[in-house]
Design a protein that fits this description.
The chain has 16 helices and 18 strands. With 490 residues, the protein is of the alpha/beta class. It binds pyridoxal-5'-phosphate.
Length: 490
Amino acid sequence: MLPFQSLISIDKNSIIPVYQQIANRLVSLIREGIIRPGSALPGSREMAELLQLHRKTVVAAYEELNAQDWIESVPRKGVFVAQNLPEVKPRKFTEGVSVSAYAGNTGFSFNRQLIVPAPSSGVQKQRLVINDGFPDLRLAPMEALMREYRSLTKNKTIHAMIERSDPAGVYSLREAMVPYLSSTRGLSIQTNNVMITRGAQMAIYLAARLLIQPGDYVAVGDPNYHLANIVFEEAGAKLVRIPVDEQGMDIDALATACKKKKIRIVYVIPHHHHPTTTTLSADRRMQLLQLVRQYKLAVIEDDYDFSFHYDSAPILPLASTHHDGCVIYIGSVTKVLTPSLRIGFMVAPENFIKQAANLRRLIDLRGDNLMETAIATLIRNGDIGRHTKKSNKVYHQRRDMFCSLLDEHLSGIVNYQKPAGGMAIWARFHRQYPLPAVAARALELGLFMNNGAAYVTGKANYNALRVGFASLNEKEMQEVVGVLARAVKK
Ligand SMILES: Cc1ncc(COP(=O)(O)O)c(C=O)c1O
């Protein structure tokens, strides 16, 4: 007889009833070929003794298995595994080792190797974390947002909202975006030009998938937002890397590249380029628009960080100028409130928005209707505008304070250019202080920071990382810089 007492282990703390655990385990043993079709099972009394359980529990398990036709009870003979089940070649049985169908690797051949850097924060348990440049949730109008959200869950129209839902986003939010984007960014658009996405990231993905044919050349900054590069390459693009300096992407270099190669798409981050945080200057924007007209380029303008500019008002987007329908404009609400609220937007000609909505439907039938509706209210009643203004002031002060702290404690070790806006500083560590070692030491001191690996591309190793300052208050900034200063001393 099989050693049922070691084959069937019971977890009395499980939410699954004990009889169900026995039945489930017996089914697995039959499926794995360890118990063969037609073989006898111990009677309920004997099994109850083996498992040290009440007999009634085993009877209930057998009744369950009987009802599902896994076993049959033959009067006066005993309990047998059903005869008609297919023979399974038994797996090697190792006592004490539980078998899970989802351990480790797939059973079928699977060689896909998507290399995407792990998130730089969020999963970390450290009290102090350097993120890429996140807003401070503590400043966001979350109470007002949650009040709106709650009131919608009580609203009788909630079902109608789902039935009428559109992969381009909740209509009221698309509608609210029209005056909002007109007053903040000078965009002259209609509701049909707006699609709501789950963050700017989804908008980048959708635009890339619709625009890129395998082998297409896509011009990107060098260095560039690594997740956009991966999206483009995944879609089959060949990247043409254009240097980025203190005034953003070098448009002369782009013009030269356009003469040499049939570039179809340009991805540009006009405010606070990721990772280097520089802003595309007004003259370069005009130069870029000329190239767009000349070569009929498709531009993906990722203005993820438009709302936070300190030294002046933000520069109006390319999308606000006449561009012959060539600019796909992308923005994000996640940067205004919190990255956990997955709301962003894409602005484009209507035919493009329709296709983007169709494509989105293949992976995500609709966005978060309730959240989108609540955000629409906060845009219309001015809460988002007031919050943006208030946090702009706070982040401005934080930027100045963080830069002073860097100058005071890390001068000669960290090199940076004060960004005109945004939520992060591109901190380049002196070669003498390799980031992987600094990050490891910082972790020992209770601070998580990424080790700069995401920005090591080909020959370039910037030994740099984005240090998000916006989410840190005064005390936290002092602590972070203090730990960094200690970490580089080792
Ligand atoms: C340049 C850039 N674009 C897009 C995104 C994605 O933003 P979202 O959180 O809105 O998806 C990020 C995120 O940090 C980013 O840095």
